[in-house]
Amino acid sequence: MELHALLNASAANEQSLIRSQTVQREPDHGSLLTDIDAELVDKEILEPENDELSERVYEELAYRERVLGARYPFELVPEYGKWALRRRAAESDAEVAAHDCYICCLLISAIHSELLPTKSDHEVFKSSARALQVESYLTAAEVLGGRAYWFGFPRPDGSGMLEAIQDLASMMGTAVAPEERPLGLSANAADGTVDIVAWRPFLDGQAASIVAYGQVASGRNWIAKPIKSFIDGHFLPWFDKAPSHTHIEMLFVPFPQHHEQPEEKKEDFRAVASEKARLRENDYGVVIDRLRLTELMASSKANGRYKVGDYQTHEAFTSAWVQEALDYAADGALSA
To answer: DSSP code of 228?
Structure first.
């Protein structure tokens, strides 16, 4: 529904949803999207299924709007006794940034699913990982209210692993980096599985600061990327003295983290989602999903924790990528 509201001039409405007869799987919340061209089925079977489908879609969209408020780039409105989803006008720079972030993540999710199938050698697909890396980097400083470092390879400055470790240690001021690659570590190391480093520095400049390491996963293989399994053996050994004794792990993803959660008839969906998030933290750390990225991006735009030129360069990249993805979708790639 969000993709249709994004790509069509008119609002995506309930009527267009219930016209369809066969439910397809949508990666944001179980079975939500439908095949408009499917053949008609028995009306007595269809009507209750349509009612249930409409209710589930509305509940999910209302949840996103309730969580994000004006940061949500769409709004639910009444239309001829039913409901419709349409674009929301932003009223501040922070809201513009939030809307742009949400839409970018929405398109990344669609590209890595059947909603907007894209060949892996297409530039839109190849650049989608970098687009999410940018969104993650520009929001990471807000997680701790401090600073962030783009560590994922390739890095904007083109640095190698050892040089990046030395630069990071210098910026943080609480770590010591070696002059040469530590014995036993790979000469071909790229980023040690760490894409983002965020920390909250204190005025005293002493060690024992708050540090978080993040991994960015744009595709469906995110369950195979638990940063906790790699950081102790592939990243921290690059330091002579690590930035901190303890740290927080994070995983940045472009979809809502409940996107593959099935309905359980006897259980409240949101209650189950909350408990699953609690368990998920054990393996992946704090999951920063589309809703959280959007929330953080609004704060990032308002608080100005990044160098202006750096921020604008990255912001321009994602804007250009979103436009390219929208052009690709407009050419007819969007599945019904």
So the answer is: G
> How far is the C-alpha of 26 from the C-alpha of 19, rounded, in Å?
17
In this structure, are 143 and 39 located in the same domain? no
Residue 37 in tokens: 């061209």
Q: What is the pLDDT of residue 17?
A: 57
pLDDT at 302 over 90: yes
Distance from first CA to last CA of the chain, Å, rounded? 11
pLDDT tens-digit readout, 147-180: 999 999 999 999 999 999 999 999 999 999 999 9
**Domain limits for position 42:** 2-89
- Could you write out the three-class secondary structure of 82-138? EEEEEECCCCCHHHHHHHHHHHHHHHHHHHCCCCCCCCCCCHHHHHHHHHHHHHHHH
* 99 is a domain residue: no
pTM > 0.70: yes
The SS3 call for residue 286 is: strand
Domain count, the chain: 2
In a domain, 74, yes or no: yes
Specify the pairing of strand 147-150 against strand 22-23. unpaired
242 shares a domain with 162: yes
Report if residue 53 sits inside a domain: yes
Residues 53 and 169 reside in one and the same domain: no
Pair 197, 144: CB distance under 8 Å: no
Mean pLDDT lowest among 29-43, 126-140, 172-186, 311-325: 29-43
Residues 60 and 155 placed together within one structural domain of the fold: no
Averaged pLDDT for residues 28-43: 39
